[in-house]
Amino acid sequence: MSRIRRSFTTAVFVALGVLFSATFLIVSELANRRLTVAAEKFGHTIEAKGLLREVSSVVAEAEAAQRGYYLSGQTEYLTAWRLAPDRLNGLFARLHEIWEREPEQLQQLILLRTSVDRRMQGLESGFKLAKPGDRNSMRNSLGREDTERLKREIDLSIGRTSRLYQDDMRQWKSDVMVTRLGVGILSTINLLLLLLLYTRSQRELRSETQEMRSVEARQHELEQLVEERTAVLSELSSDLQNEQEREKAKIAHDIHDELGSLVISARMDVTYVLYKLRDSEPQLAEKLENAIQNLDTSVDIKRRIIEELRPSALDTLGLVPALEWQVQQVCERANLRPIMDFPVEMPDLPEQMAITLFRVTQEALSNVAKYAKAGQVWVTLRILNEYCQLTIKDDGIGLTDTAMNSPLSHGLSGMRQRAVSLRGTFRINSAPGEGTTIQVRLPLPAREPADSPAT
After folding, report:
1. How many whole angstroms separate alpha carbon 94 and alpha carbon 84?
2. How confident is the model at residue 139 (pLDDT cuts 50, 70, 90)?
3. Are 415 and 400 in contact (CB under 8 A)?
4. CB 67 within 8 A of CB 138
5. N or C: which end of the chain has fewer CB within 10 A?
C-alpha cells in the first residue's frame, strides 16, 4: 500500500512539474513573439526616421539644384532635380509599407506626402517661369516660407516617430520585465518541485534500500538455512549410502559363508545318494541329477547376487577389473557393444571413491540396458591432474529436459548425490535421439610428499 501511495505522490509531483514546464514554455513563446513584434517595430521606427530624413534631404537637394541652376545656368545642377520625384516615390512607398497597419501614422504620412507634392509642384512651376540669373524669380520660385513649413512638417513627423519609438521602447522594457518575472517565478516553482521530488525520491530510495537490505538479510538467512539443511541431508544421504554399502557387504558375506556352505553341502549329499542309487533306482537317480543341476544353478545365482551386492573383484583386484567385469556382464545381458578405455596404471583410490565410481557405472549401465534402446556404450576412466573422471556414453534415444531434471529420477539423483557427497561434480548431457552422456568428476586425495633421502 505504501508503495502505491509513493508512486501516486511521485506521479503528482511529475504532473505538476510537467504542467509548470508547459506553462513556462507557453509564456516564453508568447514573450518571444511579443519581443519579436517589438523588435520589428523598432526596426521599422528607426527605418521610418531615416526615410523621413531622406525625404527632407531629397527636397533640400531639389531646391539646391534649382538654386544652382538659377545662379549659374548650368544644366548639370538639374540632375538631382530630375531624380527627386522617383526617389520620393520610392521613399513614400516604403513608408506606406511600414505604417500600413497604423492608421494614425498612415494619415500623417498622407498629409506629409501632400505637402511634399505641393512643394515639388511649386518648385516645378517656378522653374518653368523663372530664367537663369533672375534673382527675383529665383526667390519667388524657391519660396523660403514653403520650405520652412515643409521642414517643420517633416520634423514633426520625425518627432512623432521618435515618440512612437520611445513608447515602443517602454513597452518592450515592460514586456522584458514581465517575461523575466514570469520566467523567474516559473523557474523558482520548477526548482522547488524538483527539490521536493528529489527530497522525496531520496527518502523513498533510503526506505527501499533499507527494505532491500532487510530482504537481502532475510534471503541470506534463508540461504544459510537451506545450505545447512542441504548439508545435513547430504550428509545423511551419504551416511545412508555408506550404511547400505556396509549392509550389502554384510549380506554378501553372509550369503557367501552360510548359504554357500549349505548349498555346497546339500550338493555333496545329493551327489553321494545319486552314486548309491544310480544302478538300483534309475528313475530316482534322474531326479537326483536334476536336483544337482538346480543346486549348481543356485550356486551361480548366489555368486551373481553376491557380485551385485559387493563385487569381490573390487576388493581383491581393484576398480578397473571390477568395472570391466560389470560392463561385460551388463552388455552381454542387454546385447550391447562395449567400448572401454581405462588407464593402464591406476592409482590406489579410497574405498568410498572406488565404490562411488563402481555404483555410478552400475546404475548408468542399468539405465542404458532398460531404457536407452542403444546399440553401443562407451565407458571411459581418466586421471586428470587432481581429478578422477568417469564418462558413460550411449547412442540411444536420449532424454528430455523434463526427464533429466525430474525429482522422480531416483537413479540420476542417487548418482548425483554420490558425487556431491565426495565434493565432486555430476553432469548429464542428453537430447532426444542423440544419446546420453554422464560424466562424474571426483577430486583425488592429496598426495603425501615423498620422504627426502637422508643426507
Report:
1. 15
2. low
3. no
4. yes
5. C
Q: Which three cell numbers mark 48?
A: 521610418
CA gap 369, 336 in Å, rounded: 8
**What's the CA gap between 301 and 426, in Å, rounded?**
33
d(CA 410, CA 418): 12
Contact by Cβ (8 Å): 390, 361: yes
Q: Return the amino acid letter for 229.
A: R
Cβ count within 10 A of residue 26: 12
Please report which confidence band the pLDDT of residue 4 belongs to, taking 50, 70 and 90 as the band edges: low
In 3-state terms, what secondary structure has residue 444? coil
C-alpha cell at 404: 533429466
Count CB-CB contacts under 10 A for residue 33. Answer: 10
- Joined grid coordinates for residue 161: 516617430
| 3-state DSSP assignment of residue 146 | helix
Q: Which grid coordinates belong to 96? A: 506606406
Query: How wide is the angle at C-alpha 11 spanned by C-alphas 9 and 15, nearest 5°?
Result: 120
Among candidate residues 322, 320, 325, 324, the one with its CA nearest the CA of residue 348: 320
- For residue 455, what pLDDT band results from cuts at 50, 70 and 90? very low
Cα–Cα dist 92/104, whole Å: 16
Percentage of the chain beyond pLDDT 70 is 79
Residue 329 has pLDDT above 90, yes or no: no
Secondary element (H or E) of residue 207: helix 144-254
Cα–Cα distance, 363 to 227 (Å, whole number): 27
Q: Identity (one letter) of the amino acid at 411?
A: G
Segment of 90-94, 146-150, 163-167 carrying the highest mean pLDDT:
90-94
What is the DSSP-derived secondary structure letter of residue 377?
A: E
> How many residues appear in the chain?
455
Q: How many Å apart are CA 229 and CA 232, to the nearest integer?
A: 5
Of the candidate ranges 58-62, 135-139, 391-395, 429-433, the one whose mean pLDDT is the lowest: 135-139
φ/ψ of residue 225, rounded to 5: -65, -45
d(CA 366, CA 357): 14
pLDDT, average across residues 267-294: 81
**Residue 298 is inside which H or E element, if any?**
helix 282-309
Residue that the C-alpha cell 492608421 belongs to:
103
> Which pLDDT score is estimated for 454?
44
- Closest alpha carbon to 70 in 9, 3, 8, 139: 139
